[in-house]
């Protein structure tokens, strides 16, 4: 089994919005590829390819809120998978940590994937009030894919190699992923914690449920053994200059 980390663009915002001390930051938007004998799964799927264009309506909306993203044609989900010799049409599972636009955009490039999501997250995304409150735009995730709604912990392939873990707080049904392989033991934290700085200080951005996020991060940390690598949601210090990185002990 192989585990790869890929970067699908950058997110630009105030440092405070990302729980960081810098005034302005540009942070990676990652997604992950698990190449398992029973099929390929992605954990999150980055930005929609239309966001390559600066005049895309959603990017214009972001800029009214003092945010933006950047994406090159070589950073799309399709190009990342092609560099791994994986056909996007062959992806079996698209496990979504949550339904924010920078984690669901690439679904449009994965036509045959089954979405795997916490039931409470999907329900929030389909509720007009909750989707507006938690910024869950249906444009990017409600595309007619097959859907597997789960409730809590879930063994994705049934062999203990890939376990989905509830980590509520950032959104109503946020989830993380624990991947065990010969290459090492990894917890893909996603936005349960943006970066190492926030993991240390526990200063979560004010608009999230900090008590729930602290509880979820404690539960994820409790699963860590001596060799476990926790990979945070948008931490520039955990990524190098290359758009595709193997996350196996590197």
Automatic annotation (TrEMBL):
Name the SMART domains on file. Lactamase_B
| Keyword field contains Transcription | no
Record keyword ATP-binding present: no
Q: Where is the Metallo-beta-lactamase domain?
A: 28-234
- List, separated by semicolons, the cofactors it needs: Zn(2+)
| UniProt keyword annotations, A-Z | Hydrolase, Metal-binding, Zinc
List the InterPro entries hit by this protein, alphabetically.
Answer: MBL_superfamily_lactonases, Metallo-B-lactamas, RibonucZ/Hydroxyglut_hydro
Q: SUPFAM superfamilies per the record? A: Metallo-hydrolase/oxidoreductase
PANTHER family (UniProt xref): 102 KBASES UNSTABLE REGION: FROM 1 TO 119443, QUORUM-QUENCHING LACTONASE YTNP-RELATED-RELATED
In the record, the note on similarity to other proteins reads: Belongs to the metallo-beta-lactamase superfamily.
Name of the protein in question: Glyoxylase-like metal-dependent hydrolase (Beta-lactamase superfamily II)
Q: Which organism is it from?
A: Caulobacter rhizosphaerae
């Amino acid at each position: 089994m192989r585990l790869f980390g890929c970067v699908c663009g950058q997110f630009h915002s105030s440092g405070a919005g990302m729980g960081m001390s810098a005034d302005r930051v540009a942070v990676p938007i990652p997604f992950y590829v698990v190449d398992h004998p029973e099929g390929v799964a992605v954990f999150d799927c980055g930005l929609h390819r239309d966001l390559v264009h600066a005049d895309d309506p959603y990017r214009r909306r972001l800029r009214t809120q003092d945010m933006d993203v950047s994406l090159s044609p070589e950073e799309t989900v399709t190009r990342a998978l092609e560099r791994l010799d994986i056909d996007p049409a062959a992806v079996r599972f698209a496990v979504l940590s949550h339904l924010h636009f920078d984690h669901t955009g690439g679904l449009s490039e994965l036509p045959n994937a089954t979405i795997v999501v916490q039931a409470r997250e999907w329900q929030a995304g389909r509720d007009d009030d909750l989707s507006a409150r938690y910024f869950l735009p249906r444009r990017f995730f409600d595309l007619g894919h097959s859907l597997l709604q789960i409730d809590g912990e879930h063994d994705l392939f049934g062999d203990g190699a890939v376990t989905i873990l509830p980590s509520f707080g950032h959104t109503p049904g946020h989830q993380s992923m624990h991947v065990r392989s010969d290459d090492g033991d990894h917890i893909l934290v996603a936005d349960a914690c943006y970066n190492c700085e926030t993991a240390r200080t526990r200063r979560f951005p004010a608009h999230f449920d900090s008590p729930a996020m602290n509880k979820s991060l404690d539960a994820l940390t409790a699963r860590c053994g001596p060799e476990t690598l926790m990979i945070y949601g948008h931490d520039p210090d955990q990524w190098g200059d290359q758009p595709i990185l193997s996350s196996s002990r590197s």
